[in-house]
Design brief:
The complex is a heterodimer of chains A (139) and B (130). Chain A is of the alpha+beta class and 139 residues long. In chain A, 27% of the residues lie in helices and 23% in strands. Classes of the chains: A alpha+beta (139), B alpha+beta (130).
Chain lengths: 139, 130
Protein backbone atom coordinates (compact mmCIF):
# COMPACT_ATOMS: atom_id res chain seq x y z
CA UNK A 1 0.00 0.00 0.00
CA UNK A 2 1.29 3.39 -0.95
CA UNK A 3 1.48 5.68 2.05
CA UNK A 4 -0.33 8.95 1.79
CA UNK A 5 2.05 11.64 0.71
CA UNK A 6 1.62 15.30 1.33
CA UNK A 7 3.37 17.86 -0.84
CA UNK A 8 4.00 21.40 0.03
CA UNK A 9 5.87 23.86 -2.12
CA UNK A 10 8.86 25.72 -0.74
CA UNK A 11 8.99 29.40 -1.51
CA UNK A 12 12.28 31.26 -1.02
CA UNK A 13 11.88 34.07 1.49
CA UNK A 14 12.77 36.67 -1.14
CA UNK A 15 9.72 35.79 -3.18
CA UNK A 16 7.42 36.78 -0.35
CA UNK A 17 8.61 40.34 -0.03
CA UNK A 18 6.54 43.32 -1.03
CA UNK A 19 9.50 44.44 -3.16
CA UNK A 20 9.44 41.17 -5.10
CA UNK A 21 5.67 41.23 -5.63
CA UNK A 22 5.72 44.87 -6.71
CA UNK A 23 8.60 44.31 -9.14
CA UNK A 24 6.90 41.28 -10.66
CA UNK A 25 3.74 43.35 -10.99
CA UNK A 26 5.65 46.00 -12.93
CA UNK A 27 7.09 43.34 -15.20
CA UNK A 28 3.74 41.65 -15.77
CA UNK A 29 2.20 45.01 -16.64
CA UNK A 30 4.65 45.25 -19.54
CA UNK A 31 3.56 41.86 -20.88
CA UNK A 32 0.19 43.43 -21.65
CA UNK A 33 1.69 45.93 -24.09
CA UNK A 34 0.53 45.14 -27.64
CA UNK A 35 2.61 44.87 -30.80
CA UNK A 36 3.93 48.31 -31.85
CA UNK A 37 3.21 49.56 -28.32
CA UNK A 38 5.78 52.34 -28.65
CA UNK A 39 4.21 53.82 -31.84
CA UNK A 40 7.43 52.94 -33.68
CA UNK A 41 6.63 49.30 -34.43
CA UNK A 42 8.42 47.55 -31.58
CA UNK A 43 7.59 43.90 -30.96
CA UNK A 44 6.16 42.90 -27.59
CA UNK A 45 8.28 41.87 -24.63
CA UNK A 46 10.05 38.69 -25.75
CA UNK A 47 9.63 35.49 -23.75
CA UNK A 48 13.39 35.05 -23.23
CA UNK A 49 13.59 38.59 -21.83
CA UNK A 50 10.57 37.98 -19.61
CA UNK A 51 12.07 34.81 -18.13
CA UNK A 52 15.43 36.44 -17.60
CA UNK A 53 13.88 39.53 -16.03
CA UNK A 54 11.85 37.35 -13.67
CA UNK A 55 15.03 35.59 -12.51
CA UNK A 56 16.74 38.95 -12.14
CA UNK A 57 13.92 40.25 -9.93
CA UNK A 58 14.26 37.19 -7.72
CA UNK A 59 17.96 37.80 -7.26
CA UNK A 60 17.59 41.55 -6.82
CA UNK A 61 15.02 41.10 -4.08
CA UNK A 62 17.60 39.22 -2.00
CA UNK A 63 19.57 42.47 -1.73
CA UNK A 64 16.66 44.75 -0.91
CA UNK A 65 17.59 47.56 -3.32
CA UNK A 66 15.53 50.73 -3.77
CA UNK A 67 12.61 50.11 -6.08
CA UNK A 68 13.60 50.58 -9.75
CA UNK A 69 11.68 52.09 -12.61
CA UNK A 70 10.87 49.24 -14.99
CA UNK A 71 10.75 50.33 -18.65
CA UNK A 72 10.02 48.42 -21.82
CA UNK A 73 12.81 48.75 -24.37
CA UNK A 74 12.03 48.86 -28.11
CA UNK A 75 12.89 45.51 -29.65
CA UNK A 76 11.34 43.40 -26.90
CA UNK A 77 13.56 43.93 -23.87
CA UNK A 78 13.12 45.51 -20.47
CA UNK A 79 15.20 47.86 -18.35
CA UNK A 80 15.48 48.34 -14.59
CA UNK A 81 16.80 51.76 -13.64
CA UNK A 82 17.66 53.64 -10.51
CA UNK A 83 18.72 57.21 -9.80
CA UNK A 84 19.94 57.21 -6.23
CA UNK A 85 21.64 60.17 -4.57
CA UNK A 86 23.44 61.18 -7.74
CA UNK A 87 24.29 57.67 -8.89
CA UNK A 88 22.57 55.98 -11.79
CA UNK A 89 22.27 52.28 -12.50
CA UNK A 90 20.57 50.78 -15.54
CA UNK A 91 20.23 47.02 -15.94
CA UNK A 92 18.90 46.09 -19.35
CA UNK A 93 17.54 42.68 -20.25
CA UNK A 94 17.91 42.25 -23.99
CA UNK A 95 15.29 40.48 -26.11
CA UNK A 96 17.38 37.28 -26.07
CA UNK A 97 17.58 37.32 -22.28
CA UNK A 98 21.16 38.50 -21.86
CA UNK A 99 21.65 41.18 -19.23
CA UNK A 100 23.82 44.30 -19.40
CA UNK A 101 24.41 47.14 -16.99
CA UNK A 102 25.52 50.76 -17.07
CA UNK A 103 26.56 52.46 -13.83
CA UNK A 104 27.07 56.22 -13.68
CA UNK A 105 28.86 57.74 -10.69
CA UNK A 106 28.17 61.18 -9.21
CA UNK A 107 31.04 62.68 -11.21
CA UNK A 108 29.75 61.25 -14.49
CA UNK A 109 32.21 58.39 -14.76
CA UNK A 110 30.54 55.38 -16.34
CA UNK A 111 31.13 51.69 -16.07
CA UNK A 112 29.36 49.04 -18.05
CA UNK A 113 29.39 45.35 -18.73
CA UNK A 114 27.39 42.19 -19.15
CA UNK A 115 26.08 40.25 -16.19
CA UNK A 116 26.92 36.57 -16.22
CA UNK A 117 24.13 34.01 -16.13
CA UNK A 118 24.53 33.71 -12.37
CA UNK A 119 24.53 37.51 -12.01
CA UNK A 120 27.47 37.27 -9.62
CA UNK A 121 28.17 41.00 -9.97
CA UNK A 122 24.69 41.95 -8.82
CA UNK A 123 25.42 42.28 -5.06
CA UNK A 124 28.40 44.51 -5.80
CA UNK A 125 26.34 46.74 -8.09
CA UNK A 126 23.60 47.16 -5.49
CA UNK A 127 26.16 47.87 -2.77
CA UNK A 128 27.72 50.48 -5.04
CA UNK A 129 24.35 52.09 -5.73
CA UNK A 130 23.28 52.34 -2.12
CA UNK A 131 26.61 52.90 -0.38
CA UNK A 132 27.00 56.24 1.36
CA UNK A 133 30.76 55.74 1.51
CA UNK A 134 32.44 57.54 -1.38
CA UNK A 135 35.54 55.38 -1.05
CA UNK A 136 33.43 52.29 -1.55
CA UNK A 137 31.59 53.81 -4.47
CA UNK A 138 33.51 51.99 -7.16
CA UNK A 139 31.75 49.57 -9.45
CA UNK B 1 29.92 61.81 -62.93
CA UNK B 2 26.83 59.95 -61.81
CA UNK B 3 24.68 61.76 -59.29
CA UNK B 4 24.82 60.44 -55.77
CA UNK B 5 21.99 58.17 -54.72
CA UNK B 6 19.29 60.16 -53.02
CA UNK B 7 20.18 58.80 -49.59
CA UNK B 8 23.88 59.72 -49.92
CA UNK B 9 22.89 63.10 -51.24
CA UNK B 10 20.90 63.66 -48.07
CA UNK B 11 23.89 62.83 -45.95
CA UNK B 12 26.11 65.30 -47.77
CA UNK B 13 24.01 68.20 -46.61
CA UNK B 14 24.61 68.68 -42.93
CA UNK B 15 21.47 68.94 -40.90
CA UNK B 16 20.97 72.26 -39.14
CA UNK B 17 21.95 71.62 -35.52
CA UNK B 18 19.70 74.37 -34.23
CA UNK B 19 16.57 72.53 -35.38
CA UNK B 20 14.41 71.06 -32.65
CA UNK B 21 13.45 67.41 -32.98
CA UNK B 22 10.54 65.77 -31.19
CA UNK B 23 10.59 62.19 -30.01
CA UNK B 24 7.30 60.61 -29.07
CA UNK B 25 7.31 59.07 -25.60
CA UNK B 26 5.35 56.07 -24.42
CA UNK B 27 3.99 56.58 -20.89
CA UNK B 28 6.18 53.74 -19.61
CA UNK B 29 9.24 55.85 -20.46
CA UNK B 30 8.19 58.62 -18.12
CA UNK B 31 9.75 58.16 -14.70
CA UNK B 32 8.02 59.88 -11.78
CA UNK B 33 10.24 60.34 -8.75
CA UNK B 34 9.77 62.67 -5.82
CA UNK B 35 7.07 64.64 -7.60
CA UNK B 36 9.25 65.22 -10.65
CA UNK B 37 9.36 63.52 -14.01
CA UNK B 38 12.32 62.44 -16.09
CA UNK B 39 12.71 60.46 -19.29
CA UNK B 40 14.01 56.90 -19.30
CA UNK B 41 16.96 56.21 -21.54
CA UNK B 42 14.84 53.39 -22.97
CA UNK B 43 13.15 56.08 -25.07
CA UNK B 44 16.36 56.45 -27.06
CA UNK B 45 17.39 52.81 -27.41
CA UNK B 46 16.27 50.78 -30.38
CA UNK B 47 17.16 47.10 -30.47
CA UNK B 48 15.19 46.43 -33.62
CA UNK B 49 18.02 47.61 -35.84
CA UNK B 50 15.96 50.52 -37.08
CA UNK B 51 16.85 54.18 -36.98
CA UNK B 52 15.25 56.41 -34.37
CA UNK B 53 12.16 58.15 -35.69
CA UNK B 54 11.64 61.80 -34.82
CA UNK B 55 9.58 64.77 -35.96
CA UNK B 56 11.21 67.98 -37.18
CA UNK B 57 9.36 70.41 -34.94
CA UNK B 58 9.36 73.24 -37.46
CA UNK B 59 7.38 71.06 -39.89
CA UNK B 60 4.53 70.06 -37.61
CA UNK B 61 2.58 71.11 -34.56
CA UNK B 62 1.89 69.58 -31.18
CA UNK B 63 -1.76 69.30 -32.14
CA UNK B 64 -0.95 67.30 -35.28
CA UNK B 65 1.25 64.88 -33.38
CA UNK B 66 -1.28 64.50 -30.59
CA UNK B 67 -4.01 63.84 -33.08
CA UNK B 68 -2.01 61.10 -34.77
CA UNK B 69 -0.67 59.64 -31.49
CA UNK B 70 -3.14 60.59 -28.77
CA UNK B 71 -1.57 58.46 -26.02
CA UNK B 72 1.99 59.59 -26.50
CA UNK B 73 3.88 62.41 -24.84
CA UNK B 74 6.56 64.40 -26.65
CA UNK B 75 10.15 65.27 -25.75
CA UNK B 76 12.22 67.89 -27.53
CA UNK B 77 15.91 67.42 -28.32
CA UNK B 78 18.10 69.90 -30.13
CA UNK B 79 19.44 68.33 -33.31
CA UNK B 80 22.96 69.34 -32.29
CA UNK B 81 22.76 66.91 -29.37
CA UNK B 82 22.43 64.02 -31.83
CA UNK B 83 25.07 65.47 -34.16
CA UNK B 84 27.57 65.87 -31.30
CA UNK B 85 27.21 62.14 -30.58
CA UNK B 86 27.99 61.34 -34.22
CA UNK B 87 24.46 60.62 -35.39
CA UNK B 88 23.23 61.65 -38.83
CA UNK B 89 19.78 63.16 -39.27
CA UNK B 90 17.98 62.49 -42.53
CA UNK B 91 14.63 64.05 -43.40
CA UNK B 92 12.23 61.25 -44.31
CA UNK B 93 8.88 62.89 -45.13
CA UNK B 94 5.93 60.54 -45.22
CA UNK B 95 2.59 61.17 -46.97
CA UNK B 96 0.86 61.41 -43.60
CA UNK B 97 3.76 63.08 -41.84
CA UNK B 98 5.99 65.54 -43.72
CA UNK B 99 7.91 66.21 -40.49
CA UNK B 100 9.26 62.67 -40.17
CA UNK B 101 13.03 62.27 -39.95
CA UNK B 102 15.41 59.42 -39.18
CA UNK B 103 18.28 59.61 -36.73
CA UNK B 104 20.93 57.23 -38.02
CA UNK B 105 23.65 55.74 -35.90
CA UNK B 106 27.27 56.68 -36.56
CA UNK B 107 28.92 54.56 -39.23
CA UNK B 108 30.87 51.52 -38.12
CA UNK B 109 30.48 49.26 -35.15
CA UNK B 110 29.14 50.78 -31.94
CA UNK B 111 29.33 48.73 -28.82
CA UNK B 112 26.23 48.13 -26.74
CA UNK B 113 27.88 50.18 -24.00
CA UNK B 114 28.29 53.16 -26.30
CA UNK B 115 24.68 52.93 -27.40
CA UNK B 116 23.52 52.85 -23.79
CA UNK B 117 25.71 55.83 -22.89
CA UNK B 118 24.34 57.82 -25.82
CA UNK B 119 20.75 56.92 -24.93
CA UNK B 120 21.32 58.14 -21.40
CA UNK B 121 22.86 61.39 -22.62
CA UNK B 122 19.90 61.99 -24.92
CA UNK B 123 17.37 61.23 -22.18
CA UNK B 124 19.06 63.67 -19.83
CA UNK B 125 19.08 66.45 -22.42
CA UNK B 126 15.56 65.89 -23.75
CA UNK B 127 12.81 68.09 -22.38
CA UNK B 128 9.13 67.37 -22.06
CA UNK B 129 6.91 69.34 -24.42
CA UNK B 130 3.71 67.61 -23.35
Amino acid sequence: MVPEVQWSSITPASENTAWHRRALGSLLRLTRLPEAWDSYGSPRLQSAALESAGRLIGLLSLHNPPFPHVSPVPGGGVQFEWEYFGRGLEIEVLPDGTVEFLAVAEDGRMSEGQLSETHKQLPRLIRWLTSSNAAAARV
Amino acid sequence: MLPLPEYENDRVHAFDGSQILWRRLHREWVVSEGGEERISSAAFIDNTGNDLSVHIAALTTIEEVRQAYPHMRIAAVEAQTFLDLGFTIVPDPQPQDPSHALVKEPAGHRSRATRKRDARTLALKAQFII
